[in-house]
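Quarterly update, task 2.4: 4-nitrophenyl beta-D-glucopyranoside-bound model.
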Amino acid sequence: MSDVVFPEGFVWGSATAAYQIEGAAREDGRGPSIWDTYSHTPGRTLNGDTGDVAADHYHRWADDLDQLTALGLDAYRFSIAWPRVQPGGSGPVNQAGVDFYSRLVDRLLELGIRPVATLYHWDLPQELEDAGGWPARDTAARFADYAEKIVGALGDRVHTWTTFNEPWCSAYLGYASGVHAPGRTEPAGALAAVHHLNLAHGLAGRVIRELAPAAQLSVTLNLHVIRPASDSAADVDAARRIDALANRAFLGPMLDGTYPADLLADTAAVTDWSFVRDGDEQTAAVPLDVLGVNYYSTTLVRAWDGQSPKSDADGHGRSKHSAWVGSEQVEFLPQPGPYTAMGWNIEPAGLTELLLRLHREYPDLPLMITENGAAFDDVVTPDGAIHDDRRVDYLRRHIAATHEAMAAGADVRGYFVWSLLDNFEWAYGYDRRFGIIHVDYATQQRTWKDSAHWYRTLTTTNRLP
Ligand code: PNW
């Protein structure tokens, strides 16, 4: 590989999410979220792990922010816990919750690190789930109200506001396959959730524009790179269906102001989409300054003949076929390795392909990689080091793939490694470690893995080591 050098001003960052790191689940007036309920329900998470304590970031935030400086980062992507700001999901704010994020943002600014705040990284206040959750239209209105309160308080001290992280996960894993909170398995409800998340994005986006006109507005999507098993018409059509459900169900309303016709036709047996009201799609299409892209791996599909036993690997290492509502005729195939500890195949070329697709379809929209990283079984050596060579290799190859897309014209402004710290990896609890900084959960001690040292060399030289 010849020298890979990034342009001056390219933003290097790292990302986290509130429920995955904060802990302090019952402190300072925080209310319960769907992830508290879900993780406390037996059988839902590996080893019954919960986010009650997590990486104790709520108490250690100041030291954790100093790590960002030590890593030479330009930006920090974090999420705001709605149940800290508005414990029941509506009504007056909980000032202690707002103050926590206000202090965090002020400290980032003191350190010269750009705050990139996500309003929703999956922790819906439980009261709103009890009232129907994302399949209920009112949740979108509640989200806009929450946005008004927290954006009103933090304003344009936050450099970039992101409405949602991966609404695909909230809708399909939360309401179709049920492997994420709230764990419901209601195909029509999942598509209603898709729509109300799109609508909520548009409503909150307008609030952000009004209350923080100097801030950048964004959303983060986990767009899927879907490959057909062959170039037969049937396999290509299977890939088209999944592209509609996974990608264009969000890109359509948010960027083009309309749902794709093939999505509505493919899912006609599941729902008539009557929850989409006049004007909703235009509302969802609030103009964005930047699109956040999360990328981990690829997905391989083929048409199912309806006879042979159906494989339901989906490139993410576990069965969640039932997430793909209305796609009974599609089969998800296992992919060639190597794999990460999540069972996800490692395919850096997929990232180049995704960035170039977005550049081709939305040439004027700047892109930001808001998550990329890998879980591996890290070993702490007797002298306390963590030689995570496979993570370094994963990061190096994906950052090179980003550079390749940029060389071919993609307008990529920055890269955030997932994650700053080992944390609560949702249904996998503390068993899967994504951090470039190791967390010893017994002592909460933080230790740099080799990948953190490697990343620091990159962030301080702009040259891929
Ligand atoms: C993303 N899938 O989650 C999230 O934004 C992070 O909070 C998370 O820790 C990270 O990626 C690693 O998992 C995903 O099953 C979770 O396809 C599951 C899937 C995709 C993304």
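Highlight for this quarter: The pocket of 4-nitrophenyl beta-D-glucopyranoside is lined by residues 17, 20, 165-166, 169, 222, 294, 316, 371, 418, 425, 434 (CB under 6 Å).
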